[in-house]
Amino acid sequence: MMRGLVLGFLQARVVGTLLALAGAAVCAHAPAAAQGSYSPYDESASAALARYVRTLASSPKDFGALVGAGKAALSLGDAQAAAGFFARADEVNPRSPLPQAGMGAVSVANGEPYAAMPYFTRAQQLGAPASTIACDRGLAYDLLGQQAKAQADYRVALNGPDADEARRRLALSLAIGGDKAGALQTLTPLFAKRDPAAGRVRAFVLALNGDSNGAMAAINVAMPGSWSRVAPFLQRLPGLRPDQKAAAVNLGIFPDPNGSALASASAPTVARYSAGSVTSSSVTTDRLAGIDDLLRGPSQAPQPTWQPAPPSAPPPVQVAYAAPLKRPQAASVQPRSSKIWLQLASGSNAAALPSQFQRIKSRGRDLFDGIKGYVARSPDRARLVIGPFRGTSDAQIFAEDLESVGVSSFRWTNSESDQIVPLGTE
User: Fold this and answer.
1) Residue 43 burial (CB < 10 Å; 0-12/13-18/19+)?
2) CATH 1.25.40 applies to domain 2-36+95-251
3) Among 249, 355, 389, 421, which has the minimal tally of Cβ within 10 Å of its Cβ?
4) pLDDT score recorded for residue 256
């Protein structure tokens, strides 16, 4: 609930309006990879997505449309759908850095900085200029509590396509590091441009440095009458760790009072895609099939449209998208350091994962012969994973085999703090 409210203050582009500020907000979660493409004065993200889907209905392998659809979906807050489009783009042109950069942005939007870094590395290896990935990689560093590296990346991104967003994130990062004056000075060019998001960022800068009264006054200017509802959040910001501050002010993710878990967030905007329509729906485990249907070939159905989905309760398990990248044998050992896994599902209810694994296995019993499932616990969720794999190529090979039986997966790299146990023993 609070996450949607915080995002409403932070983001410059909003899908719909904040509904009952104490409730859920239907707002655009727009990481840098997407924000640079849309503004209130240009084509909206929803219009762009509908346009790209129309193109894909007749040309399923149109690389530009796939990348554009991924960015638009990400801008609309549907990171999972964005990952699906970027995955298909990677299939069409695996030598382009754009899908890899997009998947990195998706991981960042999901609050998974460790998973994001390999994508950014690969994007650079494929020729992506640093200025095109630095804004999102900078946020990944911020989420890791590495503010100096984050700020260095943001400064590089000031010369790239996401300059305004990089400036906002740089101001927040400086504030997280205690440099209030530097943060406010960084925002000056945005105020000169009358950037509507600058006022919201300024409120967070003040709150991060303990000026709750100033922050609430700034919030009230940006969104009149709302300061009292966000006062508890603003007052808690100074007491968080640097990485928690970054997650709170950039993604709307903040720890619960005992610090043991992340507060629940309102459900993201999601959509079901098909050749004939793009309609809102709740998250389901077969949304990828809709994209598959769209990208399989032309359709004579009516032109697609996009409608933002209303907030709904998040499901207990969400199946992740992955770049479908032949089948190695996954080792059944637990990691002592960072390892490469394939994530099959995730959710807040770990108890639902065993039955989910059985349903997934039923799609290809031979494929899963000898493959064990594991539960990876992070502060914000429980993941159903298989592995670890010897390397990225092995993981990609097995992901492709999973794709052949209709199982979507997502390459995931654990951190040393993640607890990973065999499925059923957690």
Assistant:
1) middle
2) yes
3) 355
4) 60
